[in-house]
């Protein structure tokens, strides 16, 4: 990728990482982001878990991809990886799609260490078993800062507040489409795919004491999690059901009018639309002391997943070569962003070496 001008569209962690790695080969790279900073979309609004696999007892492939990609993520972004005081995974006593035995067998199969334990913050009557695990989180502030520094070092030219239309890309020799929920808008009609779009809420809370430095995840099904938000002293709540305000399957996300102005705005204090009371009620089934949480505000964004993966909860990352000029990046888990960016560099090297059309296609990271 040594010559020509490269456009990377989308300043999420996948676009930023691809831009940095492509620019590191000596190419002239322009990164375009519609919002006023990088990592303002899903990469800035999520549960911040650097997945090692524990979360995916129904998808060995996602668990393995998470586990195997961690080292490459750390090699670039290790400075932004944070350890929490205690990281617990509980198997719900009712309605769980996994059992303690199945979860333990899964961990052994994938090579994930775990230690059965008790905790005074988790209601023992609500869970079938509880495990202490080794898994980490991502500090968003440090990650964003690091991304800016890396791009400066590799010479990526960053264009913020710059939404890109397909015709804007004509002047570029190579294009990386890393727009996540917006992938189809930059593609020719015949290349568009259906995705499941979920308009999600992430409430941010402040805990008085006990839960402040803890991550707790309840598996496996319609349950909850709580994780510290960097070193802000705040935490983020997750709930598989109540996080989702609207879902559609199609080429583009449908955003209900009342949520439009809330999307990708960071923490919105006192949001006019919120499921926070439902998050709280569901969490109080599992956590002691959750009712003392203070709701600081909520974050809203679009999650994009493959349709029809509810049974496995699979979250693959794909690098898809559309033609000689364009590669799309569809992201599953954040930890795979460096491997995906390496595949992008590889895909462009293939196209420049004038390989036959058979080299075109999808690769799973
Ligand atoms: C609620 C939620 C919780 C999650 N929890 C986790 C988790 O704990 N761990 C994990 O690993 N993953 C998690 N994920 C998934 C993960 O956040 C995403 O897979 C990843 O962040 C997406 O990164 P991205 O760079 O592909 O997309 P984004 O971060 O969304 O970046 C795409 C960017 O493209 C920009 N854009 C779009 N169209 C255009 C255009 N035409 N012109 C210019 N710019 C454009 C957007 O503004 C956006 O900034 C979660 C996702 C959500 C939504």
Notes on the protein architecture:
The protein has helices at 13-24, 60-77, 100-110, 140-154, 257-260, 276-284, 337-352; strands at residues 5-9, 28-32, 49-50, 81-82, 86-92, 114-116, 127-133, 136-138, 157-159, 174-177, 195-206, 214-219, 224-229, 234-239, 244-250, 294-305, 318-321, 326-330, 362-364. The protein is α+β, with helices and mostly antiparallel strands and 365 residues long. The strands form three sheets. Strands 5, 6, 7, 11, 12, 13, 14, 15 and 16 form a nine-stranded mixed β-sheet that branches. A seven-stranded mixed β-sheet has the order 9-2-1-10-18-17-19, covered by helices on one side. Strands 3-8-4 form a three-stranded antiparallel β-sheet.
Report the mean per-residue pLDDT as an integer. Answer: 94
Largest sheet features: 9 strands, mixed
Number of helices, where a helix is a run of at least 4 consecutive DSSP H or I residues: 7
Apparent shape: globular
Let me know the number of strands.
19
Helices and strands in order, then pairings?
Elements: E1 5-9, H1 13-24, E2 28-32, E3 49-50, H2 60-77, E4 81-82, E5 86-92, H3 100-110, E6 114-116, E7 127-133, E8 136-138, H4 140-154, E9 157-159, E10 174-177, E11 195-206, E12 214-219, E13 224-229, E14 234-239, E15 244-250, H5 257-260, H6 276-284, E16 294-305, E17 318-321, E18 326-330, H7 337-352, E19 362-364
Parallel strand pairs: 1-2, 1-10, 2-9, 5-12, 10-18
Antiparallel strand pairs: 3-8, 4-8, 5-7, 6-7, 11-14, 11-15, 11-16, 12-13, 13-14, 17-18, 17-19
Helix pairs in contact: 1-4, 1-7
């Amino acid at each position: 990728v040594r010559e020509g001008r490269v456009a990377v569209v989308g300043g999420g962690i996948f676009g930023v990482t691809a831009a940095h790695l492509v620019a590191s080969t000596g190419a002239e790279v322009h990164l375009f982001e519609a919002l006023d900073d990088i990592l303002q979309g899903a990469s800035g609004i999520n549960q911040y878990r650097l997945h090692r696999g524990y979360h995916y007892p129904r998808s060995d492939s996602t668990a393995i991809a998470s586990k195997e990609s961690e080292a490459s993520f750390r090699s670039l972004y290790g400075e932004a990886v944070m350890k929490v005081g205690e990281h617990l995974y509980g198997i719900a006593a009712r309605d769980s799609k996994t059992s303690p035995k199945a979860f333990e067998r899964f961990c052994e199969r994938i090579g994930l260490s775990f230690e059965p334990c008790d905790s005074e913050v988790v209601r023992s009557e609500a869970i079938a078993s509880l495990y202490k695990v080794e898994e980490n989180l991502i500090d968003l502030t440090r990650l964003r800062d690091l991304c800016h520094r890396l791009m400066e070092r590799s010479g990526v030219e960053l264009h913020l507040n710059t939404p890109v239309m397909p015709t804007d890309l004509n002047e570029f020799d190579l294009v990386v489409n890393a727009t996540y929920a917006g992938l189809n808008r930059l593609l020719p009609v015949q290349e568009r795919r259906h995705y499941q779009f979920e308009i999600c809420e992430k409430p941010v809370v402040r805990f008085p004491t006990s839960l402040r430095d803890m991550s707790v995840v309840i598996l496996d099904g319609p349950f909850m999690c709580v994780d510290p938000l960097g070193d802000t002293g705040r935490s983020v709540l997750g709930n598989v059901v109540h996080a989702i305000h609207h879902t559609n399957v199609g080429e583009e996300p449908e955003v209900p009018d009342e949520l439009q102005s809330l999307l990708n705005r960071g923490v919105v204090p006192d949001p006019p639309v919120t499921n926070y009371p439902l998050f709280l009620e569901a969490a109080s089934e599992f956590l002691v002391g959750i009712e003392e949480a203070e709701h600081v505000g909520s974050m809203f964004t679009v999650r994009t997943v493959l349709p029809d993966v509810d049974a496995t909860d699979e979250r693959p990352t794909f690098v898809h070569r559309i033609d000689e000029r364009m590669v799309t990046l569809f992201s599953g888990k954040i930890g795979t962003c460096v491997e995906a960016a390496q595949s992008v560099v590889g895909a462009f090297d293939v196209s420049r070496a004038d390989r036959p059309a058979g080299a075109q296609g999808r690769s799973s990271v």
